[in-house]
């Protein structure tokens, strides 16, 4: 069936215009409106029922909760959400929480107060149970696995198991892990997978989010010398770059002195030849948006890909 | 004078809580409220008058217009805005426009309809005149120089002149430029500066925004051989990284075969040893937010710093 992109193309208007017409939104010229309606007839377009459900919302505003904006992971997920929202003429209200529960609650209260048509949690500090209580007031979607709420996620346990298998195949024996938080479902899954693989708490480094954190962990590792891991699975590419740079400055070699496997596969991993687990983050955002319109509980697991480079 | 960060620290509550108390915002426990008010007395805190002006807005919502979220430049400016907004208990409504005028107009109409307390343009497709007409409905701030609207900006003309001087001092004679758009005030300033420095249109490459664009420009340059520039001033670090990677793949050397000077000084420039013009982007976002509360026309010019590395 034709989608609104096809309509836009055939009617020679923007996707935004088509979605405006579908949602009886103002600021569309009569001429464009007629062009779109004509084209919809020609292409036998049936308005997407999910889209209808959502468009019945009063505010046309979708809330997005995330801890930090300037992190590739979150800005890409946000980008995916924004792309789909824009197609449907929705606006995004942004809640940058820095993992403060009270800011997450503020977003939930806006949903309860019908100031939002739906709410997407890219990550959370509140418990899933706390968030779920607000589900009665409007659609809520999580970007992590949930048994009760609509969610889109990747299998973090499997991603670590895959990383460990890859590193062992490459001859590394003592594998460590860096993480940002010491709580959160995805974090717990990664830790569980590392321990199930036979590795120990002492090689897990927390508080690893930025390049500076990576440089600090690198200095710790250099002090440990041979008492440290010979390979690290790392929070994200930025932390990995910090470790890479600090090792290089100290005349150490990657992967000879330390093998690096990171997450997100951003440009910096490509440029520094760091192996990285690629997650479909734009798709995660788009899926999260689409899940807002699905009434019954639905889980979407997204695949990940391990991209090997010189660092392992 | 003590600011709300000091209060938060002394009262042992979050900055958000302090700003909530200042703005008579709900969801603050009576106990915390009393602690904050007490501390304010002790520290002789006088509520910032600008903050008051803004907090009189009905919606407590600030609109932010930007073309793309997942660009270090824009996500950092957005981050600065979000930080200040959060301190004052404001929420951000995000308009990702991809430079579509009709989406920019949608944001302006929300300001006119009093659905926003203020609007910040990180970049624009509409003319300044079009935007200015809405100034009567509420505060509008631009992140580029304007003679009529409050604005925070850096001097793009000067930044190019500085870059050219640096490259000439390093012995480069034919200097080219890459840009994203072929319109927009900042773009025009950069082009004007390059031409005033004696260089030519033929060495200006447009449509340079992402790493892939950089790789494509690199391939063009490799075809040009000695008929091309020996140094490039580049849109941003990501494009520079694309050029760097493609040259490296073809066995070419930076800076011997081509000198690179880029903008933004993000992690990737640091990691690849690419010289870059550092802009205080977080500060730009924070300044843009503060300008929303200043009734009379005010311009803030932010300084830039050229950071030299191995690529020049």
UniProtKB/TrEMBL annotation, chains A, B:
HTH lacI-type domain boundaries: 2-56
GO molecular function, one term: DNA binding
Entry annotated with the keyword DNA-binding: yes
UniProt keywords, alphabetically: DNA-binding, Transcription, Transcription regulation
Signal peptide residues on this chain, from the entry's feature table: none
Record keyword RNA-binding present: no
Record-linked InterPro entries: HTH_LacI, Lambda_DNA-bd_dom_sf, Peripla_BP/Lac1_sug-bd_dom, Peripla_BP_I
Protein name: LacI family DNA-binding transcriptional regulator
Lineage: Bacteria, Bacillati, Bacillota, Bacilli, Bacillales
